[in-house]
């Protein structure tokens, strides 16, 4: 049974869906996408945990009051409001955050700024750790252009999705639909534009993390490559474990069984009983 509720934020009411029973997990999706990106792993995760999945403003069931304001740093601010509401709603003191791409960036920010709320991090090719050069900043501006974003949102998602599971196929359909939805297209562009914002750079901050971290990465991720971003993340995040998979940018959707095995092993010692 799923418990659904909304959390008012400055960028719009955020839709949250909760299922299962046990220690709390909170799943944060990428751009574009919504909480359904975790469908392939949600059931198994909810067998031993309470799983909360949200839709960022402008995606899924969450409206965006100002689509152009939905930037990566703004999503970290949204999580500042939504996570305490989830904790109160479920009666848990803290949570393990599972974040993909910009969702991973928001999870990192939360763990750095409110460590009392975060029991651990499962990061799926997280944002905020790439080296920004003139070329990468230009690429972010390029993807934020209206015509480019409308034309490439779907094909780019196809390019970084190696394995076409049912969940991955559904996520690709949603990515291609961005071009026909003015609100989602503006959100997609705003997030891409913000990747070049200095506030998106967490490389100099993550050394202060004091929670267990599991990094999960696809071998074939062309957006945040394992050989550069993955290795860098494992090097600069204290005590982080890096697990890689033969997949693209979303191993939780592409190789869910393998990803789940790694995550469940990581979660086992983090349960209140184990601790």
Automatic annotation (TrEMBL):
Recorded hits in Pfam families, A to Z, give: Abhydrolase_1
Domain AB hydrolase-1, by residue range, is: 23-252
Query: Which InterPro entries does its entry note?
Result: AB_hydrolase_1 (IPR000073), AB_hydrolase_fold (IPR029058)
Protein's name in the database: AB hydrolase-1 domain-containing protein
Q: Which organism is it from?
A: Pseudonocardia eucalypti
């Amino acid at each position: 049974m799923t418990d659904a509720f909304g959390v008012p934020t400055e960028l719009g009411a955020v839709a949250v869906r909760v299922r299962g029973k046990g220690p709390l997990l909170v799943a944060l999706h990428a751009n574009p996408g919504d909480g359904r990106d975790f469908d392939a792993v949600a059931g198994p995760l909810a067998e031993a945990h309470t799983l909360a999945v949200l839709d960022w403003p402008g995606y899924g069931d969450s409206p965006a009051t100002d689509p152009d304001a939905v930037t990566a740093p703004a999503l970290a601010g949204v999580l500042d409001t939504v996570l305490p509401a989830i904790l109160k709603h479920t009666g848990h003191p803290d949570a393990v955050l599972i974040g993909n791409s910009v969702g991973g960036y928001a999870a990192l920010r939360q763990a750095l700024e409110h460590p009392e709320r975060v029991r651990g991090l499962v990061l799926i090719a997280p944002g905020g750790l790439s080296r920004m050069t003139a070329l990468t900043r230009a690429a972010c501006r390029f993807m934020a252009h209206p015509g480019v974003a409308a034309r490439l949102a779907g094909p780019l998602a196809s390019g970084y999705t190696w394995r076409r599971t049912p969940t991955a196929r559904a996520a690709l359909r949603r990515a291609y639909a961005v071009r026909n939805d003015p609100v989602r297209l503006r959100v997609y562009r705003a997030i891409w534009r913000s990747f070049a914002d200095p506030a998106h750079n967490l490389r100099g901050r993550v050394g202060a993390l004091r929670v267990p971290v599991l990094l999960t990465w696809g071998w074939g991720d062309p957006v945040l490559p394992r050989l550069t971003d993955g290795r860098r993340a494992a090097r600069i995040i204290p005590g982080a474990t890096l697990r890689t998979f033969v997949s693209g940018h979303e191993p939780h959707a592409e190789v869910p069984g393998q990803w789940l095995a790694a995550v469940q092993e990581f979660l086992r010692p983090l349960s209140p009983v184990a601790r």
